[in-house]
Design brief:
alpha+beta; 6-stranded mixed beta sheet; 3 domains; Beta Polymerase, domain 2; 12 helices
Length: 287
């Protein structure tokens, strides 16, 4: 709850808070907590018994009862009030649903949509209202690498512990790569496919789950003009660092055989040509 207030807010309103709501000791402990300094045993008692309940009561006048903020250090502070307000409105509209705000609105001066994710048992169609984009996801998504990514910089109405380990097969990565290359060659919007591939590639090769901000910065570097080269190089490196060499060779040789056969039938299939070229390069490097 205290993550909705800052040390700057406390110092700006200190004259009002001191004496009326907090004692000088309590206010100093709150400042210490907000500055991420360790509290001793006595201070912890004061904080949890007297200070935190008062903070919760203060915030309740704004209708805030359960707000969890992760990655605040990466957020634009001026965006928080609007994000919290929208979260409250959506929480009232979609009662008892787990809802999360994430995406570039929270950390980038330039953004297209204000993305919210509603986790529900039943399938629903996403909708837009102005810049607001509400995405409905199944509850199973809470255990996905996608959730572990978006939750790193987020505001939600529920507590969670995101997974940090996933079993990504080579086929998972290859499928993401092929879907992405196909979208690029067709000149289609490929933002979602790119996000999916980059997440899987980074985790498969390094065990790292990229945040939305990290993905945002990477995605800005990739255009239709350089995409095929950059993504193919990324795939080769991902396979080499993430999987056994013998598995790379056997799996890719099978793919090459299949796609070479298909290419005889679909002569103008540029995507098949790219797959074959990239997979041959990966085999050569792995040899």
């Amino acid at each position: 709850m205290e993550n909705l207030i800052t040390i700057e807010m406390i110092e700006k309103n200190q004259d009002i808070l001191l004496g009326r709501i907090f004692t000088k000791l309590q206010l100093n402990i709150l400042k210490k907590k907000l500055n991420n300094k360790s509290l001793d045993t006595n201070e912890k008692t004061y904080y949890y018994k007297y200070i935190k309940p008062k903070v919760a009561a203060m915030l309740s006048f704004s209708g805030i009862s359960e707000i969890n903020i992760h990655g605040r250090e990466h957020m634009l502070e001026e965006r928080l009030p609007k994000a919290v307000k929208l979260l409250q409105q959506l929480s009232r509209k979609h009662k008892n649903k787990k809802i999360m705000a994430s995406g570039s609105f929270l950390f980038s001066k330039k953004y297209n949509d204000i993305d919210f994710f509603v986790f529900t048992r039943y399938s629903k169609e996403d909708y837009r209202k102005g810049s607001l984009h509400v995405n409905f996801l199944p509850k199973s998504a809470l255990d996905s690498i996608f959730f572990s990514s978006i939750s790193q910089i987020s505001i939600s109405n529920f507590r969670y512990e995101a997974k940090t380990s996933f079993a990504l097969t080579m086929q998972d990565v290859l499928q993401s790569y092929e879907l992405l290359i196909d979208a690029v060659l067709r000149k289609q919007e490929f933002s979602k496919e790119l996000r999916d591939f980059l997440m899987k590639a980074e985790f498969a090769s390094k065990g790292v789950i990229l945040s939305t901000k990290q993905l945002y910065e990477l995605k800005k570097k990739i255009t239709y003009k350089n995409a095929v080269k950059l993504l193919s190089d990324t795939l080769v490196n991902t396979l080499l660092y993430g999987y056994a060499l013998k598995d790379i060779k056997s799996s890719l040789k099978e793919h090459i055989r299949d796609y070479t056969s298909l290419l005889k039938k679909y002569h103008n299939a540029k995507n098949l040509e790219v797959y074959i070229t990239t997979y041959r390069e990966a085999i050569q490097v792995a040899a």
